[in-house]
Amino acid sequence: MPEMITGKKTQQYSTEFKVKAVEWSHQAHRSVKGVAEALDIHPFMLSRWRKEYREGKFAMKRVKKAPVKAKQQIKEQDEINRLKRQVAELQEENDILKKSTLSGRGTTEAFRFIWKHRRQHGVKALCRHLNVSRSGYYAWANRKPSLRASENAELLLKIRRTYNASGGRYGSPRVYQALRREGVEVGENRVARLMREWGMKARVTRVYRQMSKRRDAAKTLPNYRLDEAKPEAINQHWSSDVTYIKLGRKYVFLAVVLDLFSRRIVSWRLGENLNADFSRATLREAFKTRQPAPGLLFHTDRGIEYRAHKTQALLKQHQVRHSMNRPGQCTDNAEVESFFKTLKGELLEATSFVTLRQLRRHISNYIEVFYNRQRLHSGLGYRTPLEFEEIN
């Protein structure tokens, strides 16, 4: 760089050099900063020369031949700038390719994609990549929406309201049923398509259960459910199970008792220790809340907490028939397994908890408020468990 701010003598430039530098800086494809960098001078100095050039303070004759070194420097800088622009365009095109899923679709879908990403990538770049005209896009964007588009916009607001009211837990079948309950006449496929286009999906998760290799047949009971008809009223068939929930670096346990007629969670308990007292306390609370008549069928897995002497004594006290899964057949208790899958997908998968108290509060709100009273169950004809019990 020139010695401009030191005590040394400032470098002197010829008039021809200044004129050529000014003329280059006035060319459309070049900037003051780019020319200054190529000539190894400060941009402020070049700006001053441009001002002096305009004021006529030095001769403005054209130089027929530029210095070879300066001309090479300008050429190299132009090439660098061109490559930078090309890299930027390729990066932008790569970003568009990652988002674009419009292969084989019409121009309307392309215009919708451009409208959605126009602020990030610009209309010009998007139109070039999707091979559509800008005039066509602007004609589409300024066109008055059709009746169908207006109806879809209005329907989308209702779908979004229902989806948000469920906490993002409803997929298209339940959103469709909820809209029908509100008197909205719409097709299920249309609801599914709008939800898919706007990224609304139900929160779900997979639940895996590792089967024990040891088949302990001691103190086990047969599966009476296989020979029984489906329950026709509440408090005829109950089912119970325990699942684990990760809380920080440890695991806590959730036990539930479910009425197989209405799928209602009769009682539940959250604790840090899994033992017979834990599951028995959940069962005792269910007896206190529902007060079933003698002869209730109570189905569980083959866990030791249900085979314990104290648990068996409590069941005998209330004249309950105890039924157990067949060895290796966890699907015999499918209703409770399905509830645990739903709970983990709709609540635990999307939220992290720090304390047991916080987790208990959220599970209580999910079971007592949402699951039993608000959630539409496909197995109940898209009714809530509480509603299903009231009409039967």
TrEMBL record:
Regions annotated as coiled coil: 73-100
Q: Which GO terms describe its molecular function?
A: DNA binding; transposase activity
Q: Which SUPFAM superfamilies match?
A: Homeodomain-like, Ribonuclease H-like
Q: Which UniProt keywords apply?
A: Coiled coil
Any single biological process term in GO: DNA integration
Query: Which InterPro entries does the record associate with it?
Result: Homeodomain-like_sf (IPR009057), HTH-like_dom (IPR025948), Integrase_cat-core (IPR001584), RNaseH-like_sf (IPR012337), RNaseH_sf (IPR036397), Transpos_IS3 (IPR048020), Transposase_8 (IPR002514), Transposase_IS3/IS150/IS904 (IPR050900)
- Residues forming the Integrase catalytic domain are 227-392
Q: Which Pfam families match?
A: HTH_21, HTH_Tnp_1, rve, rve_2
Q: Please report which protein family the annotation says this sequence is part of.
A: Belongs to the transposase 8 family.
Checking PANTHER family in the record gives: TRANSPOSASE INSF FOR INSERTION SEQUENCE IS3B-RELATED, TRANSPOSASE INSO FOR INSERTION SEQUENCE ELEMENT IS911B-RELATED
Stated name of the protein: IS3 family transposase
